[in-house]
Write a structure and sequence with these properties.
The protein has helices spanning 4-8, 129-135, 148-159, 194-206, 220-233, 247-252, 262-267, 272-280, 291-311, 315-328, 336-343, 360-374, 379-401, 421-432, 437-443, 446-452, 497-513, and strands at residues 19-23, 40-44, 58-65, 74-82, 85-91, 102-105, 110-113, 115-120, 138-143, 166-175, 188-190, 211-214, 237-239, 257-259, 331-333, 468-471, 485-490, 493-495. It is of the alpha/beta class and 532 residues long.
Length: 532
Amino acid sequence: MDRRGFLAGAAAVTGTALASTTSTGAAHAAGPPEAGAETAGEQAVGARDEHGPGSGPLALTHVTVIDGSGAPPAPDMTVVVEGGRITGLAPSARTRLRPGTRTVDLTGKYLMPGLVEAHTHSDGPEAVVPALYVLAGVTSVREMRGQPVHAEWREKIRSGALLGPRWVIGSPIVDGAPSLWAADVGPTIEVRDAAEARRAVRRVKREGADFVKVYSRLSREAYFAIVDEARRQGLPHLGHCPDTVPISEASAAGHRSIEHLHALLLSTSRHEKEIRRALAAVRIDPGDPSSLSRYHSWFQQVHPLEWRAVQGYDRDRADALFRSLAAHGTAVVPTLTVHRTLELADDVPSWEEEWKYLPAWQVESWPDQLAALTGGRTAEQRERLRGIFAHRLRLVRELHGEGVRLAAGTDTGTGYLVPGFALHDELELLVSAGLSPAEVLRAATQEGARTLGLSGVGTVARGQAADLLVLDADPLTDIRHTRRIHGVVVDGRWIPPQERRRLLAAVERAAAAAPPPEEGATMSGCGCGGHP
């Protein structure tokens, strides 16, 4: 397998939509439900059948509600869902259900908003990727390098023809020239001046992007032209903070979210001016067609600068910056998961159970690709990278302490990160950084939805979208309990345990049958986890 397997995951192979089953036994007409009774009939993924068992009001009863706002959990509640919305939320003892309401007894279970994944590069078979998000409890995602296939998936999901999450889709990466990323990982728009930058914004507006994804190597002139033109076009801009622009300036200019923690190392160091001069001298060979080769070259030049930044960390400088970010409403998406993969490469696992849901040829390519990206590091470099990663955890803790909005995102699309499942790793890392489980859940629900610009999503309340996650154990006592999924509600559709198991088995079969991409095919994928 060539370099594209690690950077981009699977090729954009269009597969057959998963056959879905609709439970007829787990939800019953109002009255005492029979615990665990589930039968199923086949229909297309997410297809809406107004006369089928999935129609009409649904009551999830006797469940502990964790609403995503940070409020204390509410025990023995009933949540009523109808028409894709939450229409009722009250203590079970005070709830009277309409005749014909289906009920699911969730005694001993915990209900929370569906998870929001703020940073993905989704690529792979249609029969695998969209469903994996939902089946792992992720009901909204933000696509950080949009391609036509993502819009196609979104339309199929909206029409009910495909099971998948809500999808916020960005533009191709808009970067300076030459970009760190070659064409082998997907489309990049390189701009050299203000005129090209404005044309790029107008282009992505015409193409239907929900936001402009900006990148690290933009010149100041081009970045601020994007800021102005995006405002004129009614598009948010977000992504990497360019090397040429201090984070404080970008935040004041309306930069919606800062992705990764690279630029924060620079902006919180007393050596910032010195390091910015050195970054301006970093060179990428525009004739190199390999993103892996470009990245490796970049790493050799930038690693000493990141270490220099950490050595010069200035807490007063950091506090002032973080207060400014909070005041301007700029979110930070730390993506600790991808930082850990690329910086603690010696610690990546040899196998995880969820890898079976991706094509074997993709998974088998990861070790060689990671070695190509990170190989040749000296013992000193490896030790420094451990120190840099530990410093990133400290930054997350201090960002949160100063009131900066954090959203949970992973950079899925990079090797070792499985759609949906990777977000649970991110939640654990956020706890390890010093946030409480309640604070992490808020980052992955309410604050995540806010960062994505989604209204009516991210909390459990009347009128909100019925995107819900039901767990077998309390995530407030152990964040790892978000993995103990009992069932999922997506756009009002209840997926009970037996159906979820069937759908995961179908995903596994589809992944096993997916052919490898043709050699030389253009890949869309990560293209951002490795750059400051």
